[in-house]
Write a structure and sequence with these properties.
The protein has 28 helices and 24 strands. The protein has a seven-stranded parallel beta sheet with strand order 13-14-12-15-16-11-19. Strands 3-2-6-7-1-8 form a six-stranded parallel beta sheet, with helices on both faces. A five-stranded antiparallel beta sheet has the order 23-22-21-20-24, with no helix packed on it. Helix 2 (13-20) packs across helix 3. It binds a DNA duplex (15 and 10 nucleotides) through residues 62-64, 89-92, 116, 141, 196, 199-200, 231, 260-261, 263-264, 362-365, 385, 387, 393, 422-428, 454, 528-529, 549-552, 573-576, 584, 588, 611.
DNA sequence: ATCGCCACCGTTTTT
DNA sequence: CGGTGGCGAT
């Protein structure tokens, strides 16, 4: 039981107002680090405490992990597991409801959720079958097309309008793209596939078009809470409105300055409109920051002060601290990485744990150089927003089989499996899948398909696999074993060079599957919330530095935060042009900087490698340039007394001094199999293979097998 | 006509 | 790393 006095000790005045409001719409406008999560947690606890049934609460958060975490905390507060509260993302809740009520809209509950890669696969298939590329060279890439299709759904605008406004440079292809969209839609319907956008669109349809279901849902979930409301799109706003049409018990929490997802349709005007849509809304503002020290807050307020936005709020804090954020202008990316590594080592000596520090950046590849440096210094790190376990090729092969068990008309998976067969290529695979999709019994149709010379055997094995699976009891773990049994030889042939490494992933998959007793649930979960590739990520106590894109760092905080790559052209992203996109990039920087509790380091390289391996000088990000110089401290390129200079490995300044003493380039003939070499980054290694004309494979003692090009790598022979 | 292999290029952000 | 395009082999 929460008692009222502990409540008022923990929460401030405005939070208390939000928490204890039992009925009616509430809008909480909250700054970064102001205790949004805490407010929601207490609200859940308070509701249950006052006799509201947990089943009637629906908590929508940005990630599924956030929902779990909140419910766990609320459970601790009131001595109840809160496990009967429904919590998750819009997408996962949509999935649950559509499985239950989807028949009212006329679709089978066996649909498969597809991710971005699947969507790109479909677009590719259609692109070639519609012959859209016949006479065109510059037809937009499938990634761009998927973005456009999704954007048009999320922004609730016809595709052709979107093309002429947001993608004007592609307008000459408008007709083809619209045609592609139509085919894409019917392809999904025909094959029982549903993408992320469909989940939301169909949830809204369910509420808008089927009164009985709307009634049932509104009756059941009498309390609705939405976190990160600034990241919802118009569809999601509609869903909230429709789902609460009976009771209006909605509490949304958001910060307009942290809206960073407009590229996928999020519209922070949802926050401004909320009071109009729900008349009688109580508005609560949280302006006290519980996270960062004043100097950090001064800087972040300064960042957002330059926004053209109208809704200004200035955060204040009571947390002591005098250390100003530091700005470091590095000579190049290597020097920037050295700076970060040096500071990290220093901080560790002062007693800061590695997992209390994070490095944030705009785009995934901005951290490549740093990853290399961290590796050679033996600093463990964990990259967020990188490749997920289920995104690697071998994982998808296994998942394709499991997906077909649930939805035999999933053409994408058939296609994928057929391609694993030797001597069977894209053309044949397409021919076969077309027949399978049209038949009522795909497996039987596959067995009956007249085989070709080289690949009949492979098809037979596939048919056998499915016969075995269908005979077996549908216990996920057992099914998985059968699949792995079939997959082993395929896998060893396909990934001959590095299959031992990938095998570990498969074992991990096996353990994950074992914890499920329903195959459908497993498939849904992997599509909606892919497990991380790192085993370490599962252990809270893992001692690893976090590297993350800013987008993936949303809602998190660390004691020490580095933001790297703050150069013109990197941040804001080169293709963001002034206007709303520019503003979003600024908010992105704001989000990044507000992740820091105690210390904040900003850095940028003054030299970057451009398109064709030429170095260009770049200046600092315009967002930094417009800040008041008093809000940060500049560090000179060579800080005095920094003993991290001593730990610095062989400086690549050899390149600067190299002009007069240029060493003779070694030719391939100078190396032989098995000879020992030295490399400035990777250290010593043994030559394993010589490739024509100027590259060779070297097995490094500390970094494994690498292929190097003599034109770029500076290798030296090691004597003895 | 189709498949497999090699070399090269470019990389926003994501539920 | 993943997608693509050219080329030789089947």
């Amino acid at each position: 039981m929460i008692n009222e006095s502990s409540l008022s000790r923990e929460l401030n005045e405005p939070q208390l107002a939000a928490v204890t409001t039992i009925d009616g719409p509430v809008l909480v406008i909250a700054g970064a680090g102001s205790g949004k999560t805490r407010t929601l947690v207490y609200r859940v606890a308070h509701l249950i405490n006052s006799g509201v049934a947990p089943e009637s609460i629906l908590l929508l958060t940005f990630t599924r992990k956030a929902a779990q975490e909140m419910l766990w905390r609320a459970g601790r507060l009131i001595n109840d597991s809160c496990s009967r509260v429904t919590g998750g993302t819009f997408h996962s809740v949509a999935n649950m409801l559509l499985r239950r009520y989807g028949s009212a809209l006329g679709f089978a509950p066996s649909f498969t959720i597809i991710d971005r890669a699947d969507a790109e696969g479909i677009v590719n298939l259609l692109k070639s079958s519609l012959q859209l590329t016949a006479n065109r060279k510059q037809f937009p890439s499938k990634r761009v097309i998927v973005n456009m299709l999704s954007g048009s759904v999320n922004k609730a605008r016809p595709l052709s309008d979107l093309i002429y406004e947001d993608y004007a440079h592609l307008s000459e292809y408008a007709e083809e793209i619209v045609r592609l969209q139509q085919h894409y839609q019917s392809f999904k319907v025909d094959h029982g596939l549903m993408d992320y956008d469909d989940l939301l669109v169909n949830w809204r349809r369910l509420l808008a078009e089927v009164p009985a279901v709307r009634e049932e849902i509104a009756e059941r979930y009498r309390y609705l809470m939405v976190d990160e409301y600034q990241d919802t799109n118009p569809i999601q706003a509609d869903i909230v409105r429709l789902a609460a049409y009976r009771h209006d018990n909605v509490m949304v929490v958001g910060d307009d300055s942290q809206s960073i997802y407009s590229f996928r349709g999020a519209d922070f005007y949802n926050i401004m409109r909320f009071p109009e849509i729900f008349p009688g809304t109580r508005i609560v503002k949280l302006e006290q920051n519980y996270r960062s020290t004043q100097p950090i807050l001064t800087l972040t307020n300064d960042i957002i002060r330059n926004a053209v936005e109208k809704y200004t709020k200035t955060l204040y804090t009571r947390i002591e601290g005098t250390r100003r954020p530091q700005l470091y202008a590095a000579r190049d990316e290597k020097a920037e990485a050295d700076f970060v590594v040096g500071r990290i080592n220093e901080l560790r000596r002062e007693g800061v744990a590695l997992h209390d520090m994070a490095v944030l950046f705009r785009s995934g590849f901005h951290s490549f150089k740093l990853e290399l440096e961290l590796g050679s210094h033996g600093i463990a790190f964990e990259k967020r927003g990188g490749l997920k376990l289920t995104e690697s090729a071998h994982m998808k092969d296994v998942l394709a089989v499991l997906r077909l068990l649930v939805n035999p008309f999933d053409t994408l998976s058939w296609n994928r499996l057929l391609l694993t067969i030797d001597k069977l290529g894209p053309k044949t695979a397409q021919k076969i899948t077309a027949i399978l999709a049209a038949s009522s019994e795909p497996v039987a149709a596959l067995a009956a398909y007249p085989g070709g010379k080289g690949w009949q055997e492979g098809v037979n094995r596939l048919v056998q696999l499915f016969t075995r699976l269908l005979e077996h009891e549908p216990v996920p773990a057992a099914l998985c074993d059968i699949v792995l049994d079939w997959y082993q030889p395929v896998f060893e042939r396909l990934y001959a060079d590095d299959y031992p490494k990938r095998q570990k992933d498969l074992e991990q998959l096996r353990t994950i599957i074992a914890s499920y007793d329903d195959l459908q649930r497993f498939i849904d979960d992997t599509a909606l919330d892919p497990p991380e590739a790192d085993l370490q990520a599962y252990h809270e106590d893992s001692e690893a530095l976090v590297l993350s894109t800013i987008h993936s760092a949303k809602g998190l905080e660390w004691q020490v935060v580095f933001i790297i790559g703050l150069a013109d052209g990197r941040f804001p992203h080169a293709s963001a042009f002034p206007g709303e996109q520019w503003e979003e990039e600024r908010r992105l920087l704001y989000v990044a900087a507000t992740r820091a509790r105690q210390r904040l380091y900003l850095s940028y390289p003054r030299e970057l490698m451009g398109a064709d391996r030429r170095f260009n000088r770049v200046s600092m990000s315009p967002f930094l340039a417009e800040l008041s110089p008093a809000s940060y401290e500049r560090i000179e390129p060579l800080p005095p007394g920094g003993d991290w200079l001593a730990v610095r490995p062989m400086p690549s300044t050899a390149a600067a001094a190299v002009k007069p003493v240029r060493k003779k380039k070694l030719a391939l003939e100078d190396f032989s199999l098995g000879c020992r070499v030295n490399h400035p980054f990777f250290g010593t290694g043994t030559v394993r293979k010589l490739n024509a004309p100027r590259s060779l494979d070297v097995a490094f003692d500390r970094h494994g097998l690498k292929t190097l090009h003599l034109d770029y790598a500076t290798l030296n022979l090691v004597d003895g």
